[in-house]
Write a structure and sequence with these properties.
The protein is mostly helical and about 190 residues long. The protein is built from eleven helices and two strands. The protein has helices spanning about 10-20, 25-40, 50-55, 55-60, 65-75, 85-95, 110-120, 130-140, 150-160, 170-180, 185, and strands at about 130, 170. It binds calcium ion.
């Protein structure tokens, strides 16, 4: 990999496993690896929250905090304060554009993208989106462009229309139904390796 830093060395079997799970090819993994290395300022072998906040695109993104949260939520290293290279690549794989040649069981399917989006709204991670959570995230997205009263009514209406069982909590199934006719595949695809 042309990287002499030992703490990040990847074995060929690691690369193979990452390819299998994420669908990224060798060359893409290589480039993500050097991106990861450059973010890992102290050569720790993992990224901390501070490392993520140094990414300018995230620092200025109103949802940056939620996106950073998602990286740590998805982490499998067992430590909730660390994102290792495999975690890093797994999260990014959700944003891979969906190709015509059907890729099965990959992280960029419509379902996986929807699940990822759902977690952006489910602030406390209990599997339901409350009106308050919806309003909080909407506020993050639109800033002060829309009045609090309007946001309140948007959140209220969305929850009301989405919750078929009238419990004022949006489940993942209800969330997916709301987005049924939305092109989630396109909206949640970033060509970050071009
Ligand atoms: Ca919740």
């Amino acid at each position: 990999m042309g990287n002499s830093r030992s703490s990040l060395q990847l074995q060929p079997e690691d690369i193979e496993a990452i390819q299998e799970e994420t669908g990224f090819n060798n060359n893409q993994i290589d480039r993500l690896y050097s991106r990861f290395s450059s973010l890992d300022k102290q050569d720790k072998g993992y990224l901390s929250r501070e490392d993520f906040l140094r990414i300018p695109e995230l620092a200025i993104n109103p949802l940056g905090d939620r996106i950073v949260h998602a990286f740590f939520f998805e982490s499998r290293s067992g430590d909730e304060d660390k994102v290792d290279f495999k975690d890093f690549v797994r999260v990014l794989a959700h944003f891979r554009p969906i190709k015509k040649s059907a890729e099965k069981n990959k992280l960029n399917t419509r379902m996986k993208k929807l699940q990822f989006a759902f977690r952006m709204y489910d602030l406390d991670g209990d599997g339901k989106i409350t009106k308050k959570e919806l309003k909080t995230v909407l506020t993050l997205m639109v800033g002060s462009n829309i009045s609090e009263k309007q946001l309140d009514s948007i959140a209220e209406r969305t929850i009301m229309e989405a919750t078929l069982d009238n419990d004022d909590l949006m489940s993942f199934e209800e969330f997916a139904k709301v987005l049924e006719r939305t092109e989630v595949e396109k909206k949640m695809s970033i060509r970050f390796l071009n």
